[in-house]
Amino acid sequence: xxxxxxxxxxxxxxxxxxxxxxxxxxxxxxxxxxxxxxxxxxxxxxxxxxxxxxxxxxxxxxxxxxxxxxxxxxxxxxxxxxxxxxxxxxxxxxxxxxxxxxxxxxxxxxxxxxxxxxxxxxxxxxxxxxxxx
Length: 133
Fold this sequence. Notes:
- By secondary structure, the protein is α/β, with parallel strands linked by helices.
- The protein contains 4 helices and 5 strands.
- It has helices at residues 17-26, 42-48, 94-105, 122-129, and strands at residues 31-36, 59-64, 70-74, 87-91, 111-113.
- The chain has a 5-stranded mixed sheet with strand order 4-3-2-1-5.
- The protein is globular.
- The model is unreliable at 1-11 and 122-133 (pLDDT under 50).
């Protein structure tokens, strides 16, 4: 089991980062990127032990296979991931989001991410797939 949680949805916990990193290394992945907006990824909330508050702006949380986690949050909801360990980066404009997403993931090439196939964010889609010629 990578994360532990209780059946009471009001109880939060700290994710077991070392257990997640061990699982990532076993699967030969460079990291796990969590992403959410409007509470669309229940897995992220469950694994990370976040309260079920509705985030109206995108947040990202990267757990690398080695090293400390990092988080990226919108300036207006800057406290959204304060319960989680790791360095925090903030964005407001699309350009900042794009720049900080690249910093968040870094040179990692093989990572897991729970994202619906329909991504409406042009910036995130561009970043995931790369610019088209």
